[in-house]
Amino acid sequence: MPLEALPTLNETxxxxxxxxxxxxxxxHPATHTTLRLVLTLDGETVVRAVPDxxxxxxxxxxxxxxxxxxxxVTIVDRMNYISPVANEIAWHHVVEQLLDIEITPxxxxxxxxxxxxxxxxxxxxxxxxxxxxxxxxxxxxYGFNQRERVYDICETASGQRFHPSYTRVxxxxxxxxxxxxxxxxDFVRNFPKAHADIRKLLNKNRIFVDRCKDVGVLTREDxxxxxxxxxxxRASGVVRDLRKDEPYLAYKDFxxxxxxxxxxxxxxxxxxxxxxxxxxxxxxxxxxENLPSGPVNVDLxxxxxxxxxxxxxxxxxxxxxxxxxxxxxxxxxxPVDEIYGAQETANGELxxxxxxxxxxxxxxxxxxxPSFIHFAIFPHLIxxxxxxxxxxxxxxxxxIAAELDR
Amino acid sequence: MSHETTLSKLRERFGADAFRISEFRDNFRVxxxxxxxxxxxxxxxxxxxxxxxxxxxxxxxxxxxxxxxxFGVVYCLTNTATGERxxxxxxxxxxxxALPTCYGLWKGADWLEREVYDMYGIVFDGHPDxxxxxxxxxxxxxxxRKDYPLRGKGERHNFATITRAES
Lengths: 406, 167
What we know:
heterodimer; A: alpha+beta; 17 helices; globular; disordered N terminus
């Protein structure tokens, strides 16, 4: 708790006795996660909003210096906990760039499918929760029903519905089976109807549109100045999507479009997310129909992959490789250098800045958290709006506290 | 490649000895002395159109093999028009590490610099509101420094308490 009052009043405002301070505290159903806003109000109008974060700070980056590249994936999972697989894929993407490993085509396609499923899951939750805060409960439930299908798919692939810790350096924990392919095909078949249901409930809903249109407008210049990325930047007219600008995984092989808008208000962000779900579904459909066969992990010769049990128990190279990767003083041979790599997750540009010192652990594992950077624009967006707009704007920014605070 | 135009502008402005270059995988880095970091960042933003500060972070090189300075501060810049990326690095050292703020160039630096201050203790001169952002206000140490232990120094057990009798 702060020991002094937060600096919420400017010098000019101190004399205005009618301004009062309201705490939109860390425990509040509309903030979804533990955020605190100290609001200075003139009646119902927000004069100034000062965010206070750090309630969920768990020292993830300090842990990154203690766990190795495969162990840290469990922590990275828990950052953007709405779409955990996407974080894992991004983390291992940067680690594989650091170690200069080229993953197999099958692994690229499976990771792409899971990344797009995670994107759909994240957008469904965001749209659903934004609607829920404004009173539309049914849209929330339709979204969550589809998210259950995504959890089923993750469980088929890795055994865990959520936080699967599925990726490894050089590949995945295990390959997927036909059950996974069947479930993904079912999802592709059934999702458009649920998406249409949500769209019909919200797109032309008088209350939803009135509460979201022209609320929290972010101009294109401000979006770039404040380092915004992802749907928030695209809804303001910044035409930038890392899947097209710096293609990674298997995105070069697929035909999809990048959704942008010009208005930059909450309604535009909602529309961008709804359409992005359709594009993600297209990518998943193309990926699952063209899934290449072959191994999902790289060869043993690279000395970076955990060998599967048949190699560990039946060949001396496999056994040695298994030992080397788990012994605390051996692990991977990393170059003594640093790298910044990023992927386009549902929330925006999720980047990792990894400093390696030759051992198998990161010397510094920094996450570039899109939620943190987007929450910084909140005071700028909410100025002059009413208290009820706080909920609409906060919902449209998709702030996830675990990524905000790490 | 596309870095050539940026490099030639920097060389023309500051001279080729004012900075070092290094490349690793697809990252292109420019290493700059701390006194000139704001000049370099201003030139990169205004003349080479790096209009977005994608990331800003710091590293504590206390236990790093062959390190000469203690703290490194990293700025990852992006040119949203061409997609070009550049990493600008600078180094600061221990008694009172300080750098000029780049809040005047990119507003996104506001919270990023507050986090670097909170975690490492590097002060940014000219920052409008440099206070702790993730740790509680009364926290005294800088947690991501290498001499701060992983499990902390017992701060979690030493909260100021008010008993019912005192309240």
